[in-house]
Amino acid sequence: MSFSISLTVNGVRRDVELEDPRVTLLDLLRERLYLTGTKKGCDRGQCGACTVLVDGRRINSCLALAVSHDGADVLTIEGVARGDLLHPVQAAFIAHDGLQCGFCTPGQIMSAIGLIQEAQAGDDPERIREGMSGNLCRCGAYAGITEAVLDAQKSLAEASQRRSA
Amino acid sequence: MKNFDYVRPSTVSEAIAAATEPDAAYLAAGTNLLDLMKGGVVHPNRLVDVTRLPGLDRIEHLPDGGVRIGALVRNADLAHDPDFARSYPSIAEALLSGASAQLRNAATVGGNLLQRTRCSYFYDVASACNKREPGSGCDAHDGENRLHAVLGWSEACIATHPSDFCVPLVALDAVVEIEGRTGRREVALEAFHLPPGDTPERENVLEPGDLIVALRLPSEARSFSAHARYLKVRERTSYAFAVVSAAAALRIEGGAIWDARLALGGVATKPWRARAAEKILAGCNPDLATFRAAAETALADAKPSGNNQFKIALARRIVVRALTLAAAGTPRRIPALPASPFSSISGALHGA
Predict the structure, then answer these.
(1) Chain A interface residues facing chain B, Cβ-Cβ under 8 Å?
(2) What domains can be seen in chain B, in order of their start residue?
């Protein structure tokens, strides 16, 4: 039994034929659409490396069945920069050394974008740490990640104020 | 993962008909189900995707003062609903202390009630587990069992129920609305999960095809909003299941406790309502002696199921702490680290 689904991925409509309903959203992105920026870490919802935004919300794509997300709007790490212009969260991760090996970084950045959009943490580092606890970093770059998220949140808020002024 | 048939019904009655087939399972977010399927712990022949069923994603405030929460409401949406969080702060705190932000964005209210235990012998298909395979035995008995149950367990099963959400819900008399082949019925959450006894594979009252459509809280539940907390001891600062947890809710008038609700998590195969302890609290002053007496009563029947004697003392202390903090008053804002017993100590650093 095969399934035809269509998703919007990074602003582009993608029609995909699934031979099998077992395909996760993560595997669809990586193995069918060749968007390998989204990483497969644990594949069991424990590490956050596969974090993407679905309809504007961060989720673990390894625990999402692709067929159940027919029609969804998906944003992955490949879709956040504008050409050579990095997303403010990407730039802040570089500025604050929010990474070492880089494997968890796409998930960290997508999770940070989701966290900032959720607007629950404010500028409290403790709330940022708690809000990012679903993303493990085995290099232990947590201190830089927290600083990067705080900094990016501030620059996004300032940019939005400039736009509305 | 074993292959399965996938269907996506558009009405509740179609869903029930599709899920009445043997070995069918409902799929909502799948945050627990897919994990179990990947591990070969469960292997349904058919997944009935309920995520498109209409009308199940609403939070409705009822004319009688109660609230009705659709089964497909996402954990994060419920916890961040301002009116809900104000009226039922311990439930919002429990939700925000569970899992990670990514999982809370996906996981649903109905799915939370149906979470399976995190007992590692249940997850390890090479181990004996009466819950996974009835009659095969229980390797947890002589295994790594320091986090297992201390109340309500049986020889057949010593697993614990992992939900945070269910703990304040059971304390506040939540009711589960179920739609099945013979129509709609309601079951108190306290009676929804079954004690393990000799049939630990039977975890709740659902019959084949039964679908949880909503959860309801009676109007009385919001009368505790000024003094309600959920506290949870974890083995790491965040993103961990409870070792022991407690939901405490008090109605204090004229300096005395008029009414009390108390439930524990992480201690039994089901969310554990401590009714005898509630009776001790009612009519007393909200002081340490009263809270200690309530904690003694709440754990009076506790016995270790293995190398977990410490959980009984820990549970007593978390009950005292939850009652003390509830009496002190619901914080204006949920603490930075929701449900942490350490979060209210001024100057404490978390994850620093």
Answers:
(1) 1, 3, 20-22, 24, 43-45, 48, 51, 57-60, 63-65, 67-68, 111, 114-115, 118, 120, 124, 126-127, 129-135, 142
(2) 1-52 (3.30.43.10), 223-334 (3.30.390.50)
